[in-house]
Amino acid sequence: AFHYIENDVSVLATPGLFLLPGSIQNVRAMRDEIEHHRSVDWASYKDPHAVCTVIKEYLRELDPPLIPTSL
User: Fold this and answer.
1) How do residues 6-37 score in pLDDT, each as one tens digit?
2) How far, in whole angstroms, is CA 62 from its chain's centroid?
3) Over the range 37-51, which residues count as b (16 or more CB within 10 Å of their CB) and which as e?
4) CB neighbour class for 66 (10 Å; exposed up to 12, middle 13-18, buried from 19)
5) d(CA 2, CA 71)
6) Is 2 exposed, middle or buried (0-12, 13-18, 19+ CB in 10 A)?
7) pLDDT tens-digit readout, 56-68
8) Which residues contact 65 (CB under 8 A, 6 or more apart)?
């Protein structure tokens, strides 16, 4: 996912990247592919906001959390 974001200039120039949510349908489809251990072709979705939403959800669900709740 990060490779897709950092290697496509048009994705990096997308307004609101990591701020705006992606398409719920795309996010669900990407997560389904990940959960079933399939390779995700991030670019095929043509929705950089959905890719970033998947990354944000993954980081939120880490156990233990990336940033401790005590901070």
Assistant:
1) 999 999 999 999 999 999 999 999 999 999 99
2) 14
3) eeebebeebebbbbb
4) exposed
5) 26
6) exposed
7) 999 999 999 888 8
8) none
